[in-house]
Amino acid sequence: MIEKQEEKIFREWSQVRKSFCPDGVIDEQTYLESNPKLLFLMKEVNGKKGESLDLKKFIREGARTQTWDNIARWVYGVRYLDREIEWSELEKINSDEKRAKILQSICVMNLKKSSGTNVTDNNDLYNIANEDKAFFTRQFDLYEPDLIIACGSAVTNTFLGIMGIDDPKWLQTIRGIWYFRLNDKTTFISYSHPEARIQDSLLYYGLIDAVKEIYKPK
Known about the structure:
Layout: H1 2-13, E1 24-25, H2 28-33, E2 38-42, H3 55-60, H4 65-79, H5 87-90, H6 96-103, E3 107-110, H7 122-131, H8 133-140, E4 147-151, H9 153-162, E5 171-172, E6 178-181, E7 187-191, H10 200-214
Parallel strand pairs: 2-3, 2-4, 4-7
Antiparallel strand pairs: 1-3, 5-6, 6-7
Helix pairs in contact: 4-6, 4-10, 7-9
């Protein structure tokens, strides 16, 4: 079971990384039954420095508006790719209950497992993620996602660096979103952070448009 293997890795990891913040599959069964299986790559938990926050528990309780409304909308759109969803419907995804229900099917991995502030030092992010890359790789190998959404260019660059991916074969959608095939199963999409200073509707339709072009349901 994924969650038991996560727990084993996190027990070891927390011995070498203070203020450890676990993450991973929100609900294992829902994740495994989902199509596509979605993994969101992010930088770190946004909290008080030195605080240990269980990201899975936080998301199961509805998370918080600023970041997770937009991620919940992305997930909702991916789950209904055959529909043209009006923004008026998506705007209603703005409560703890709605977010918690939609987000239970995903996996979330932070590159840095200790909490930070709302402004991340990207050099610090890379250095810590690189120190922890053996643990990170073990965790990543549990999930076998269909789509990885990297939330921000620093996340993309750090992931490629610590995973030793020197020359990904980048492709571009007709509207300019970059992606590559990590392997026969998994596609990696380099996208914006959900709190990017872009109108929420544009942020939503930009990703969903790309997924419609890239992902062919099995």
